[in-house]
Structures are given as C-alpha cells and as structure tokens.
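queue> holo job accepted (iron/sulfur cluster)
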Amino acid sequence: MTLDCVKTVCPYCGVGCGLEAVPTTQKDGTSGWKIRGDRAHPSSQGMVCVKGATVMDAIHTNRLLQPLYRATLDQPLQPISWDAALNLIAERIHTTQQNYDRDAIAMYGSGQFQTEDYYVAQKLIKGCLGTNNFDANSRLCMSSAVSGYIQSFGSDGPPCCYDDLEQTDCAFLIGTNTAECHPIIFNRLRKHHKANPHVKLIVVDPRRTPTAEAADLHLAIRPGTDIDLLNGIGCLLLQQEAVDISFVQQHTNGFENYIEVLRHYTPTAVAQRCGIDEADLRLAAQYWAASHAVLSLWSMGMNQSSEGTAKVRSLIDLHLLTGMIGKPGAGPFSLTGQPNAMGGREAGGLAHLLPGYRSVKNANHRRELEQFWNLPAGHLSAQVGRTICDTIEGLETGDIRFLWIAATNPVVSLPDLDRVKAALERSPFTVYQDAYYPTETSQFAHLLLPAAQWSEKTGCMTNSERVVTLSQAFQEPMGEARSDWSIFAEVGRRLGFGHQFAFETSADVFAEFVQLTRDRPCDMAHINHARLQAVGPQQWGKPEIQASSPSGATPASGSARLYTNHHFATADGRANFGAFHSRGLAEPPNPDYPFVFTNGRLYGHWHTQTRTGHIEKIRQMHPQPFLEIHPRDAATLGVEQGDIVEVRSRRGSAQFPAKITRGIAPGTVFAPMHWGFLWADHAEINVLTHPTSCPDSRQPELKACAVQLIPVAQLPSLECIESPKAMTASNS
Ligand code: SF4
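queue> job finished
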C-alpha cells in the first residue's frame, strides 16, 4: 500500500469487499481516485465485481447539494439553509408530539447507513423521542433471516464465515442467485467447486439463473414450495437414517414435533407439489447425507415470503437434524443484501430491536438502554414499532404525521407501489435525506437534506460474515452534504438532548455504541476506529480477539464460527427445531390471474439505480427491463421475442419486452426489479406486488404475486374478450 492509499469497503452489497482508493492524476492534470480490491481484506482477498470496480464513476453525478424545501408537494422545491431546515424539523417533531402522540413520528432508514448513522438514529427515535417507529429497508431484505435465527438459536447472527465456502463438500443454495447478487462469494465457492470434483453444488430456484447453470443439481421448484422441498429432504434423511442423533438428543428441542410433520412429506407427494422429478429430490437428499459438511446459503428468495420465517427455520431444521453447524464448511448462512444490514441489526435498526441485539419487548433491555442513555425509567416504549408497511398504513389513516426517510428509495422498492405513492401524497410532512437527486422518492418530499455518502464520511460496516470494516473518507462531501449521523445528532441537540448527542466525530459515536454490545452475542467492545485503521477489519464472535486487551493489535486472520461448542443462545442452551407445514403463496395463481410473477436483481445493478444507473459500463450491460417467459407460454399467448407484454396484477400493471427463454419454468414469469419511473416508462415491478407479510418477521412477499399477461398488440380489443385465451398459463 502506498502512503496515500486509503482502505475502505464496497458500499454496495453485504459481501463487504475490501477496497483501496488510490490517488491518481488525470491526463489534464486534475487529481482523482482509482479503486482497486484490497488484497489484505479477509473477506474478499482483493476481488471485486463490476459494481465495486466502477463505484467512483457515479459519485459526483446527480447529487443533492443543498437542503430544499416546499410547504406542499405541488410547489417547486426552493433552497433553504441548513439552520432553517434543522429548526424546521425540530419544530415539526415538537408540534407533532404536542398535538398527537409520540407514535405519530416515524423514520425509515437503510442498510446503506454506516453503523454510526444507525446508532444515532436509534438513540434519537427510540431513545429520546420514545417511539419504536424506526424501520429500515432491511425489513424488505433479511428480517425473516433475523427472526429465523432468533427462534432457532435464541439470537440473531449468521453462524458461518466465508472460509466455509472453501471447506464445504456440499453447498445448498436456495432462493439466492449468488452469482449475480453476491458475486465474490460465488467466485470463492465456484473456485472450490471446480477444483474439487467431489464437492456438490445444489441450487434451488424456479429460474435457471447463472448460479443454477453452475450447479450439479438444479431443483426448479414451483414458487412457494420451498417448505415442501425442505421437509421432503428431511423426510428422506430420516428414512436413510442420515441423522446425527447424538447432536439432536444433546443439543436440540422439538425433534418429536418436527418428525411428526416430516412424515407428511413423502418423496412422491413432494416432487409433485414442487414440480420436480422425484429422482432429483432423492439425489439432493443423497448429496446431503453423503457430505461431511453441508453449507446452505440463502437470501431474498426465502426471506421475501409470507412464510419467510418458517422457510428459514425449515432450512435450519435440516442442519439440526444432521448436526451440520458449528464446524468448518457447515451451517445455515444467510447472505445479507445491503452493505451494512448486519450493522443495522447490531445497532437495533428494525422496529422490534434495540442496540446490541436487544428487543424492545424485553423490560430488562429497555431498562439497560434508559440507564445508558440517561433517560427516565419507563421512557422507552414497550410496543413494537411500525414496520414500513405499517407506516404506509399510518399515513393512510392519518396516524403518522411526520415521516423521515433516509438513504433509501421506497418509491421503487416497496410493494403495492401505487398505494405507497398515494399514501406519501397524504403525508403532512416528509423529510427525505439522500445523497442523490432526483430520485423517485424525492418527488414526494417536503424537505430534502443532502447526505454525504461513501468516500465522504468515515464509519463502520459489518458484512455477512460479521467482519467489521472501517469505511474511511478520502474526499470532502459534495456541496453542503453532511453525514447522516451528524444530521440526526444536530436535530437531537435542537430538541434539547444536548447531553445525549455530544459527539464530535463518528469515532465517538462508535465508541459509545460498542459499549452496548459488551457481553451481548454481538460483542464488539474490543473494536474501535483506531484499531480498525491500524490492524484492519475485525470479526466479532472471535473469542481470541475478544479476550485481547483493548489496546492489543490482534490482526484479522482466519475466521470465526458461532456455536462451535453447540451451546446456543437460548435459555437452556439448546437449539429449537421448528415444525412447519407449507402454506404456499399468499396469492396463488387462479384462472383470472394464472401466472406467478417473480422478480430479482441483475449483476450490474444495485440500489434502484440511483448510483449504478449512471455508470455507462453498467448501462450497456443492462440497457432495459424485460420479462422472461417460457416458450410454451409465449406460444399460447402469441408473443414473439421482444414483443411488449402487459403484466397485470390485482393492484396495477406494467409493460416489458418479452425475453423468451427456457430458463424460466412454464407458468412463471420474471422481471428485474431496478427500473423506477425515472428510468423506464411503465416498468415498475412493485406496482404489481402485494404487501402481505410473514407474521413473525413482517417481511413482505415481494417475490411472488399472481398476474395476467396480455400482449400489448392485443390490448385495443381486450374489452370485448371475456375469457381471453391469452390469460391461460400452460401449466395452470
Ligand atoms: Fe461490492 Fe458486493 Fe461486488 Fe463485493 S460483491 S465488490 S461488496 S457489490
């Protein structure tokens, strides 16, 4: 590393690749920064994907440079000073509390936040303002993984580490297109898979994705049949006696109930429900049974479901059944989407959480926070706050009077988007804090605050394997942009909480936050900015580091797994089997809406295109939205390659050019999720989706809804057709 090279971390996804910013001089003599992978980073070992490699290309475009304000949404936005903007927020919060109640205020944050941003927001909203109405876009991403881990193991926290990618002999990927969504993780796994022919790769996905292309076994199950499949594998493992009975007896609860459920999932019935060959189901169980170390990976395909927690727990059940946890190469590993969704979990950044993996429902946890934050006893609310979907409802009913959105773009990413837009139009006062402008959400804000972004602010991010990396600033914020945490802190001070927000730097914030993790499962009390800068990324859950002195410079080396002693974070130290029957999709196809619509990410895209949409190389990779449709369905509909197809759900419609491919199962169609109304006409996938959510995790079922397909060329005569042939799915 040269003296001026700055270590940082990629701001896109939860893989958390280490980056180095290297100063350069352009041909015209101006100075700039070049980004390269950090070979010393334990998680990525110098690798980066196209997003990380091009991240500097859009840092300076379409930026919000100063606060803007309008009293009503039909007025033009006008510049306003920071001082006036902050006073306005403080005044609106104050009057909202006086005229309504503390739960009339809500904030919607983001996995783009650094941990310091998350922490100060929790202290302001849940602490000083006394409402738990703080939710984050992680609700849409991995809240089912959080509730699954908590219910099964007694605590959140992925138990695995990336070294397991090279130590497994069977990787079971379900509901994750890892090759496109977490490319560097997939690179590590694929290298290991290619070099070791005995290593098996099983991919479960209704689409033949690039991930599935690499698999030894691709199980293209029908959407919504994940639990059928998982229970079917469990049933076969039982039949084959491929069970670690000593692990089950010594370290688990609930086995009897689980096996009672499994007996309903016979191979023939499961194969039929899932739409796969029984031989393939048996092969999956055989691969699992023959392996010494099974590593399962999952992401939104499992989590974004009305039975998301049950799916996660049914997968964890297989690991408990076979004792595949707490040892090299094995375990249930949730891949986080957003770059610091993990940091958000640690800082308590969802409506039911408090910092340090605490719960708002736990009286002891609330008391600890009240004491630590120097707030009166009983000040913290015991009521779980509003999820973002509840907040939208609160805008509809008039119960939410003040909404603060930061570092996320809900007018692209929330389900039932037309309803979301209508609710935001009714919002009495919406603050929107973002680095970029315009975005789809900025059109619904009264007050816009310019946020500093990656490269302009220093703070921590935790990746999927619990590695904390310091993301260091190496250039000044553009215009009048400020870091998110400093904006929250200043509002806190103007509301009279000067003592609580006396931070001068983000290092001060982090130093306070980690005290709240001491002796908690996510203990980071040994980590601080200086140490991260001096010795590099640190992984929590690593006993030898926790044991070292605060000043000790223990280098990051190797990786840690949780539960290596098979003692879990439950009251009795045992993991809990779940016992779930499959309920299927919340909105199954029917004769009126005969297709299942699903959606997902493309390799080059992230973040509703606010950044990646401005990068030429990525624009060329993904020039336009499309709809994947099976040739059999296309033929039934009379659709040719590239024809525009209208997709209609019960909530709205969108149009896409058809991409006819055998890579999608008949009866299912797929469109990418990134095109908001600023990027394409009539291609917003979330006008189609519905907000029905998992009762435990409250994560909406963004991944599937029932739709009709109508070739646009046939639309003018549609009104005359009562039961158009065009609406019949070939396998429904
Ligand atoms: Fe960034 Fe994720 Fe790509 Fe790594 S895999 S470079 S973290 S987008």
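queue> The first helix runs from residue 50 to 53.
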